[in-house]
Each structure stands twice: as C-alpha cells, then as structure tokens.
Recover the amino acids of this structure.
C-alpha cells in the first residue's frame, strides 16, 4: 500500500496525505483546503471525502 496519495476535488489538487503511525496526515496544497491541514485520517478515501465536503460547503462535517 502506498505511503502517500494526492487528493483532488473537481480537478483541483487539494493536497496530499502521508501515512504515519496514527493514520494519514493531510497537507493542503491550496488555500480552500487549509482547514484540513495537519488533520489525521484513517485512510486516503476519508481525507478525500472531507475535502469534497469543504468544497460543497459542508464545513462542519469536513472538520
């Protein structure tokens, strides 16, 4: 299984997640996704869902 993934939302790079001891840590690559910076996710798919929720305006659910 890879140690890092690029997260894209609507053809925009949101950031990357890098696997560590506690899960996957999110590193934002553009301002709209800064709210997710440093958050730990169980897997890359969970991080992608959070980024999509931010774009859709579902801010409370994304954090």
């Amino acid at each position: 299984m890879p140690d890092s993934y690029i997260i894209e939302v609507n053809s925009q790079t949101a950031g990357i997640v890098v696997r560590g001891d506690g899960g996957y840590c999110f590193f934002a690559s553009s301002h709209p996704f800064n709210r997710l910076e440093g958050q730990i996710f169980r897997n890359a798919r969970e991080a992608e869902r959070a980024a999509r929720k931010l774009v859709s305006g579902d801010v409370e659910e994304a954090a």
Summary: The chain is about 25% helix and 35% strand. The chain has one domain: 4-56. The CA atoms of residues 12 and 30 lie 9 Å apart. The longest helix spans residues 44-56.
